[in-house]
């Protein structure tokens, strides 16, 4: 089953069970995916839909900063993020990323620019098909480069 089909199935389930926040956020993601599909004039791959989901989670994380903990809005945003996270594959932790990059430390430190160092790290994860959050990789690469300086 494709990711979009799974989202639709879970949205219907959330609707039936009256999980309003979950239903609404899934509807939003599905709508954004359908709009992008229409603009591209072709079906989206699961990876492209995952990017939409990650962006919504990032938006929610940014919104949490301005919401009072325990408030209705805060709880809704948390419920939305929990609902969305179920659709994302597990990613490596920062410690796991650092361990994976141990053989590339000298190349990362020797890179002239941060972007080049990031490219070296990301190419490893892409070639090994390991799922990582680019923000976590950026933090680890920065940490490696600061140790090497």
CATH topology annotation of the largest domain: Hypothetical Protein Yqey, Chain: A, domain1
Oligomer: single chain
Strand content of the residues, in percent? Answer: under 5%
**Major pleated sheet:** none
What helical percentage do the residues reach? over 70%
Strand and helix order? HHHHHHHH
**Cα gyration radius (Å):** 18 Å
Question: What features would you describe in this structure?
Answer:
- By secondary structure, the chain is mainly alpha-helical.
- It has two domains: 3-85, Hypothetical Protein Yqey, Chain: A, domain1, CATH 1.10.1510; 94-148.
- 74% of the residues lie in helices and 0% in strands.
- The protein is built from eight helices and no strands.
- The protein has helices spanning 3-16, 20-40, 46-64, 72-85, 94-100, 105-110, 114-127, 134-148.
- The longest helix has 21 residues, at 20-40.
- It starts with a helix and ends with a helix.
- The relative contact order is 0.10.
- The model has no long low-confidence stretch (mean pLDDT 93).
What's the structural blueprint in terms of helices and strands?
Layout: H1 3-16, H2 20-40, H3 46-64, H4 72-85, H5 94-100, H6 105-110, H7 114-127, H8 134-148
Helix pairs in contact: 1-2, 2-3, 2-4, 3-4, 5-8, 7-8
């Amino acid at each position: 089953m494709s990711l979009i089909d799974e989202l639709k199935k879970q949205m219907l389930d959330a609707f039936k069970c009256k999980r309003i926040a979950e239903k609404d956020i899934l509807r939003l993601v599905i709508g954004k995916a359908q709009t992008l599909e229409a603009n591209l004039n072709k079906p989206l791959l699961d990876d492209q839909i995952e990017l939409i989901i990650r962006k919504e989670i990032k938006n929610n994380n940014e919104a949490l900063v301005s919401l009072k903990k325990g408030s209705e809005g805060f709880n809704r945003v948390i419920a939305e993020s929990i609902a969305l996270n179920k659709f994302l594959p597990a990613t490596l932790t920062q410690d796991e990323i650092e361990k994976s990059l141990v053989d590339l430390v000298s190349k990362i430190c020797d890179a002239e620019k941060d972007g080049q160092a990031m490219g070296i790290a990301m190419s490893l994860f892409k070639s090994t098909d390991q799922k990582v959050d680019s923000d976590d990789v950026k933090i680890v690469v920065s940490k490696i480069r600061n140790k090497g300086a």
